[in-house]
Design a protein that fits this description.
about 325 residues; alpha+beta; 11 helices; rod-shaped
Length: about 325
């Protein structure tokens, strides 16, 4: 889907037909935002035919691999690759997973082009703000880029907090009722935690370059401090993700400890049962009950006496085990 938004007279974004894009870009003092979401091939052609972007950047947009976050300067525009989440925190709690998706941003002097294969809440939220109010369109492309990145990072925080809450719940469940499905869920959450951890450091470096003024031709000095705020949020998120990893490892350790304790209890019960029946088997073997019934040789009195003796052994062993706190 190709969406073209152009700054109108009241400094709000208005939707325009894609056919108007060349005229809008040629208009002095224009500001255009083009958003491509799961775009068709004829829509993707805009990147090369209208904007004349470098083929390598277009290839980065179209490939199915997850590219690491980066910022490339092509003179007239910046090409940014960042990672966001495709689902809400509620979905994280239900699915117990975090799906990351790529957001590609072209930042020019009079335009912003965003490209993503899957719906991104951060993009739709920013688009709604720009259509409702004037501040972002009035300030320019660098401020719109900041808004996209700021919203994307802000939406990582609820997802991380939801994962933290879910792991804590699973840790309690690991104590009460550990099973194989629980272990699979914990391993799945750990995989998501590692995925988030791998993207945090390069994403933080991208924002740091924007904050320290590496691109003065396209990013105004007054916005540097605002990118610094995003950087601080990413540092906090990185610390939280490290805590998630430790919490997840703790939950897995709790699960394994609980399973081992239950296995120990089962082994102890089987050992007690085997120890109790060992002397009974010995007595039965000595008296030959495994070859011929005792009551035929010694009468019922001898048979009942042997049974009483075996019962006495069982009671004695049980009392001794309980005294030693083995039962």
């Amino acid at each position: 889907m190709l969406t073209v938004l152009a700054r109108a007279g009241d400094n709000r974004f208005e939707r325009c037909p894609p056919e108007e894009l060349p005229r809008l870009l040629a208009t002095p003092e224009s500001f255009v935002w083009v958003d491509l979401e799961a775009a068709e091939p004829d829509e993707v052609a805009v990147l090369a035919d209208v904007f004349n972007f470098h083929p390598l950047t277009i290839d980065d947009c179209l490939n199915q691999y997850v590219d690491p976050p980066k910022a490339d300067d092509y003179g007239d525009y910046l090409f940014l690759v960042v990672q966001g989440i495709a689902f809400s925190p509620e979905t994280v709690l239900q699915a117990e997973s975090v799906e990351t998706t790529e957001l590609n941003i072209y930042l020019g002097r009079s335009y912003v082009v965003s490209f993503h294969q899957r719906p991104l809440p951060s993009v739709s939220e920013t688009r709604g703000r720009c259509e409702r109010s004037a501040p972002l369109p009035a300030r320019g492309p660098d401020w719109l880029t900041h808004a996209l990145l700021d919203t994307l990072v802000d939406q990582l925080l609820p997802a991380v907090e939801a994962m933290d809450e879910r792991i804590a719940e699973l840790q309690d469940e690991a104590i009460e009722s550990p099973d194989r499905a629980l272990m699979e869920r914990l391993v799945g959450l750990k995989r998501c935690t590692l995925r988030l951890r791998r993207l945090m450091a390069p994403q933080r470096d991208v924002i740091n370059r924007m904050a320290r003024g590496d691109f003065p031709a396209l990013v105004s000095q007054e916005i540097h401090i605002h990118f610094r705020d995003i950087y601080d949020h990413l540092v906090r998120l990185e610390s939280m993700v490290e805590g998630l990893r430790d919490l997840n490892d703790g939950a897995i350790s709790t699960y394994l400890a609980t399973v081992n304790n239950r296995l120990t209890e089962i082994t102890k019960a089987l050992s007690v049962a085997g120890t109790v029946f060992l002397p009974l088997t010995l007595v039965a073997s000595i008296f030959g009950t495994n070859f011929s019934p005792t009551y035929e040789a010694w009468g019922w009195a001898g048979f009942l006496g042997m049974c009483a003796f075996m019962l006495l052994i069982m009671v004695g062993l049980a009392a001794w085990f309980r005294h030693r706190d083995w039962m």
